[in-house]
Amino acid sequence: MTERSAGTGRPSPLSRPGRARRAVLSGAAAAALLLPPVLLLTPPAPAWAADVYVELNPSTVEAGYLVGIRASCRENTEPATVESDAFADKITVEPQLELLTAAATVPDDRSARPYRVKLTCPDGRVATAILNVVQPGRPSEGPATGFGGTAGDNPGSLLLGAGLATVAAGVAVALFTSRRQRA
Length: 183
Hints:
alpha+beta; transmembrane helix; transmembrane; membrane; TAT_signal
């Protein structure tokens, strides 16, 4: 019995001997050719997806500021140590909510550069991260919008001039109105 295409009454192209098999094979061949490039485009798993990692928040900070440390050592039931030239001492990260956490302040005397931060787990496993210490920012002098810069160092002289001009204008208006009333 011959398979028919829906609504046409003609034999289905797949009903001919070998056609269905060729269609399946060509589809499999296309998948085999396209799959490797797709796998190459898939990004690798991030480093923190491993059992052991250390994370810094923020990862860029000025000297004198606090850095949050979040880490993981397989079990996370025992404290681990974090050390770096960016910190004054070794830091102990303690178990908290299924992770190891701590906070550390970068001393004011640390120079602006990247610092390696190393986590050492109780079983000897290690993980590293980079902490970028930057120079402290200076506040801006504000926008140059006009009046503030034109006032000079002593704005009192500007205010005195404006006051005298106002008094002179008032006297002129008074003289003008008094002459008008006489006429």
